Amino acid sequence: MHLKLTTSILGMNVSPPAASQSCSGVSSVVNDMRSLKNAVGNKIGRDPELVLAILPMSSTNVYHAIKSFGDIIAGFPTQCVRENKIERVNDQYCANLGMKINAKFGGVNSLPRSGALEKLSALHQP
């Protein structure tokens, strides 16, 4: 709930999860991700918009398998978070996570402001 509240403050509309899936290790990630994709498809009629994966501390291989399947093979974005980070979640962590998710959907989190950039922009305006 904390992430949903924080992202809504940032102007993002985040729906509740359509499905969840447990994973028993790197050897089952592809099958588990495929099962999750199918469960979401059966529930909402399309692929997941995002998979939020909660990973244990030492999970480099699981991380890479999730990213490979979601981002490359299946074509939907993934965001991985460490289990220990969400156990003691705070506003700053949720804001940072929200900005990562926003960027994955093509959102703009900030725009640089400087006198030099404004002068350059003015030069290119007719």
Describe the model.
The protein is mainly α and 126 residues long. 53% of the residues lie in helices and 8% in strands. It has helices at 2-9, 29-44, 60-74, 83-87, 91-104, 115-123, and strands at residues 51-55, 78-82. It has a two-stranded parallel sheet with strand order 1-2. α3 (60-74) links the parallel β1 (51-55) and β2. α2 crosses α3 (60-74). The longest helix has 16 residues, at 29-44. It starts with a helix and ends with a helix. The mean pLDDT is 85.
The rounded Rg comes to 18 Å
The succession of helices and strands, N to C, reads HHEHEHHH
Strand order of the biggest β-sheet: 1-2
Q: Tally the helices.
A: 6
Query: What is the molecular shape?
Result: elongated
Beta strand count: 2
Q: What is the straight-line distance between the termini?
A: 48 Å
Question: How is this structure best summarized?
Answer:
By secondary structure, the protein is mostly helical.
